[in-house]
Amino acid sequence: MSPEWCDSPTAKDYSIDELIVATLADCFKDGEQACNGMASFIPVAALMLARATHAPGLVWIASSVGLEPRPDRIPASTLEAPLWRDSIMYVDQYTDFWNFVLNGRWITKFCVGAAQLDQHGNANNSVIGEDFHRPRVRLPGTAGLADMCSIDKDLYYWNPDHTPRSLVEKVDFISGAGYLDGGDSRAQLGLGGGPQLVITNLAVLDFHPQSKRMRLKSVHPGVTVEQVQDATGFELLMAEDPIPETLAPTCEQVRLIREVIDPDGMRKRGFR
Amino acid sequence: MEQKLATPSEAISLVNDGDIVALQNMATQAAPMALVRELIRQQKRDLGLVVLVGGIAVDWLAATGVINRLIGAAVTMEQFGLCQQYRKAVEQGRVRVEELSESLLNARLGAGARNLPFLPSRGAIGTDLIDQNPQNLLMLDDPFGGKPVVACRALVPDVALIHAHRSDRFGNIQYDPTAMWPDIAIMPKAAKRVIVSAEEIVDSETLRHHPEKTILPGFMVDAVVEIPFGAHPTSFYPLYSYDSRFHLEWAAAARDDAMAMVLLERYVLGPENQQQYLDLAGGAATIDRLRIRGADR
After folding, report:
1. Best to test chain B binding among A94, A99, A125 (most B CBs inside 10 Å)
2. Which of A260, A271, B158, B231 is the residue whose CA sits 20 to 30 A from B175?
3. What residues of B are in contact with residue A140 (Cβ under 8 Å)?
């Protein structure tokens, strides 16, 4: 735990990936549990930052395998060793991990990356195109995303490339359930939780409490509301007027990210 | 006890054209790659592949026309990108995909292992995965009055291909402490036949020193093959890491059919045994580079 983190001044020198990491880190609290999947440099950096600052008791299951690991930095894969170095337990997947996750008492939040995200927070990592069996682009597939999105978890999306192609009115295929058609359509299927925030390279977005449509919550320093709307494939609702600026990370957060957590800059992968 | 030792060729002759083959593999981890190469060398056809998260193995099997369908949760080489030959095969309609989330795949295989018609899950409710797959996934009301669930129809693969740390000659299989992904836990119990490649074949006495490491009894196993570094170029913890150079070489070639075939000739069709394959992949220097030491073991 870094004693300096709480009085640290706002950073002037930071990059957008570091702002996203710090914003996502704030979503995780002391005493919660979290896990990560593959190619998840931003969530892993955020969890490590939260543990190094305000949430030292945030339990982390690295790669959904290694309980409370002590990696010396973020490696090139977030799905395998050495991310799970020095773990207290290797969590057996078929039994323990899916028990932890499906039960609902633990691991109540999950970070989601998706090729497409729509105005109701539905995610697509499966196919681009109309025909599932002759897609224009075959994406990797849902992996554990479809499970995480349907079992009452609070979902936090990260998107390093906010464009009309990645934020669309309606996804080509729902491989992770958000608020479905909006309104109470998610609740009607008995699903709790759901999308909370979308943190992109331009802005932070949330969802209207009733309509469940995506809203602009804050714009990152130097970004205008018009820029965000132009980069979005549907009309955004506004959470407040005027739209505030996203808080920049602190000097100490930036130092921890750069020098301790991710000196190799893995978090920058996926950013233009 | 019955002896289960076999050569790669003998073991893979247990796979028939058209079979559903369950393959251990988590992206760049723990695939029985020597067995995969033997599937290609024997020119198996029309196989259906069951895989949790397939990596380079799936790309090779798609590129060589061995598989025509895939049941799985994802296919990706993670940091090395999408599997381009697989992607092209799906986009052209040569490989048909049944996409399942991890909990749905676990439920289908779990039902197969226990001889149940189905097992329920709460995963993936509300997604298009369910509407897309009415043959195998159906929403079901809880007979006890709770929330609805997804009924996941039993899946019984014809064969499971597994890689493990050691075995005796009777096919009692040991796995050292490391990540245990769901595939190693459930695929061999659901499948009708099980083929295992092991880093080493040891005397049964050696297994008795650590019975807690034994994960499969010999009576479930049909053939076991000794193949050191048998998961290369995927990682096999705690012994060796994934081969970045090899994956990068393949990822660069896989965008072009002719270049992909050159590498497949070189690494898959050419070498007659594991030693010849490893020599082509860099031999002792590669083995030394990938072996895990110290704190990461």
Report:
1. A94
2. B158
3. 74-76, 82
Query: Could you report the per-residue pLDDT of A28-42, keeping only the tens digit for each?
Result: 999 999 999 999 999
CATH number of the domain to which A64 belongs: 3.40.1080.10
pTM above 0.90, yes or no: yes
B140: left (phi over 0), alpha (psi -120 to 50) or beta: beta
Exposed/middle/buried for residue B265 (C-beta within 10 Å: 0-12, 13-18, 19+): exposed
pLDDT in tens, A40-68: 999 999 999 999 999 999 999 999 999 99
> Measured between alpha carbons, how far apart are the two ends of chain B, in Å?
34
Which structural domain range is residue A107 located in? 5-268
CB A24 within 8 A of CB A50: no
B window 51-110, beta carbon within 8 A of A: 53, 72-76, 78-79, 82, 86-87, 90-93, 96-97, 99-104, 106
Domain B8-99+156-296 has CATH 3.90.550.10: no
DSSP for chain A, please give it.
Answer: --TTGGGPPBPSS--HHHHHHHHHHTT--TT-EEE--TT-HHHHHHHHHHHHTT-TT-EEEETTTEES---SS--S-SSSTTTTTT-SEE--IIIIIHHHHHHSSS--EEEE--SEEETT--EE-SEESS-TTS-SEE----TTHHHHHHTT-EEEEEESS--TTTEESS-SS-SB-SSTTSTTHHHHTT---EEEEEEESSEEEEE-TTT--EEEEEE-TT--HHHHHHTSBSPPEESSSSPPBPPPPBHHHHHIIIIII-TT-GGGTT--
- Residue B122 forms contact with A (CB below 8 Å): yes
CB distance B123 to A147 below 8 Å: yes
Q: How far apart are CA B106 and CA B122, in angstroms?
A: 12
Whether A151 and B87 lie within 8 Å, measured CB to CB? no
Q: What total of structural domains would you count in chain A?
A: 1
Give the pLDDT confidence score for residue A7 in this predicted structure: 87
- Smallest CA-to-CA distance from B85 within B275, B266, B281, B256 is with B256
